[in-house]
Write a structure and sequence with these properties.
The complex is a heterodimer of chains A (about 140) and B (about 300). By secondary structure, chain A is an all-alpha fold. Chain A has eight helices and no strands. The two termini of chain A are about 15 Å apart. Chain B has two domains: about 260 residues, Rossmann fold (3-Layer(aba) Sandwich), CATH 3.40.50.970; about 30 residues. Chain B contains ten helices and ten strands. Chain B has an eight-stranded mixed beta sheet, sandwiched between helices. In chain B, strand 5 and strand 6 form a beta hairpin. In chain B, helix 1 packs across helix 6, helix 3 crosses helix 4 and helix 5 packs antiparallel against helix 8. Classes of the chains: A mainly alpha (about 140), B alpha/beta (about 300).
Chain lengths: ~140, ~300
């Protein structure tokens, strides 16, 4: 699947208003994945992804932190995601709607997983899922 | 981590009200892992907190807990340790509670050296009250209370702890729970006051100091060749680092210093809590006579 096609799929599934929002969600999830996937698994996944996404997995470590759970995963995702809509221009968090940011990030994360699944064959999907934190693994399997 | 005590023994059924993605989740997990790794049972530990998002932690862990008023957990924890030195006493609070409102207690706890461990959830903002700048916010940080950017220079907890005489000064990052659990375990086993400052992103109100922001900047002192954490001057130099490079790990550790409890004469005859228990076991008349001898 081409990069733009994948992002467009995320935009459609997540019902996002712009391509840029979908792109931000996709890249944010890739960033979080680089913290939980092992180097070995990352290499296998990279081969199936467009280069714009596979480059995010370059920094995977041989042994990722085994204690990263779904909450920390979402925290990593939120580094590059402003899930309240347009980028919060206040920088300091004046946007009180941002209290829902985590829940919205989880929803977008599932939509990105849906698009990523389409790039991986069934065997690889299962191996990939096994390296994800428990709850995140469920999101991926159900995506 | 292979443990005798299963970390799940510390789980509670309380509903956790932190925002999804909050760094406090990883801190809670790391505290449980550290306690389990050290084979400390829930009844052997007291967790004292103050006020703030992170100070809700005692409610989410199956151990003795005490939520104090704002900024006072170190004072209460010191008292608890004096009453029962056999108890493992941990303080868990945020940067506002620990370094702002409780700043005075922080300095004096460093110099007193009680055998307690303080874990500061440092997210550089007041999250519970919806995003005001805190003592550790960087200059220029825009919040509801600093619309033109924070004016004051940020409080440097590592340097202040060192200057005040702390015997264990460490820093971790909540994006790395394994490293954090190991550091907390080291802090608990340290004999004396241990400060563990945890860089903990507030995903809701601090959109600057994110997980990715820290990932680009932190480096591990354990991987620094030749770094000696017992060298106070070397530690002082590392404590100044912030911005482009932020050190995590044990910045400073001095072993062998007497604890506050070691020097309190009233504790020479045993812990007050232990003596109370002994008294409680005595027959009523004998107990009365003992009390009479002591106080009349």
């Amino acid at each position: 699947m081409e990069y733009r096609e994948l992002v467009a799929q995320v935009q459609k599934t997540a019902k996002l208003t712009s391509f840029e929002e979908a792109e931000a969600a996709t890249l944010a999830v890739m960033r979080a994945l680089s913290e939980v996937l092992s180097q070995e698994q990352a290499r296998r996944v990279q081969a199936c992804l467009p280069s714009e996404l596979s480059s995010f997995l370059e920094c995977c470590r041989p042994e990722p932190d085994p204690h990263i759970d779904s909450q920390t995963f979402i925290g990593w995702t939120l580094s590059g995601l402003d899930a309240t809509g347009p980028r919060d221009k206040t920088l300091g968090g004046l946007d009180l709607f941002s209290v829902d940011v985590g829940e919205e990030a989880m929803r977008r994360c599932r939509c990105v997983f849906c698009a990523l699944k389409a790039c991986l064959d069934e065997a690889l999907q299962e191996d990939f899922a096994r390296e994800l934190p428990e709850t995140v693994c469920d999101w991926f399997r159900r995506a | 981590m292979v443990t005798e005590v299963d970390p799940r023994i510390y789980d509670t059924t309380a509903e956790i009200t932190w925002c999804a993605g909050c760094g406090d989740f990883a801190i809670l997990k790391a505290v449980k892992l550290a306690l389990a790794d050290l084979d400390i049972a829930p009844h052997e530990v007291l967790i004292v907190s103050g006020i703030g998002c992170g100070s809700k932690l005692p409610d989410y862990i199956n151990a003795n807990g005490y939520m104090t008023i704002h900024g006072r957990p170190l004072a209460v924890a010191t008292g608890a340790k004096l009453a029962n030195p056999d108890l493992h006493v941990l303080v868990v609070d945020g940067d506002g509670d620990g370094y702002g409102i409780g700043g005075n207690h922080f300095i004096h706890t460093c110099r007193r050296n009680p055998n307690i461990t303080q874990i500061v959830e440092n997210n550089q903002i007041y999250g519970l009250t919806k995003g005001q700048y805190s003592p550790t916010s960087d200059v220029g940080f825009i919040t509801t209370t600093s619309p033109d950017g924070a004016i004051e220079a940020a409080f440097n907890p590592m340097a202040i702890a060192l200057a005040a005489g702390a015997t264990f000064v460490g820093r971790s990052f909540s994006g790395e729970p394994k490293h954090m659990a190991e550091l907390i375990a080291r802090g608990i086993t340290h004999r004396g006051y241990a400060l563990i400052d945890v860089l903990q992103p507030c995903v809701t109100f601090n959109r600057v100091n994110t997980y990715a922001w820290y990932r680009e900047r932190i480096y591990h002192l354990e991987e620094e060749q030749g770094y000696d954490s017992s060298d106070r001057m070397a530690a002082w130099a590392r404590a100044q680092e912030w911005g482009e490079r932020i050190p995590v790990g044990v910045i400073y550790q001095a072993e062998g210093a007497p604890t506050y409890e070691d020097q309190v004469r009233a504790l020479e005859g045993g812990s007050p809590a232990g003596r109370l228990l002994e008294l409680a076991k005595m027959p009523a008349t004998e107990q009365y006579e003992t009390l009479k001898e002591r106080f009349i």
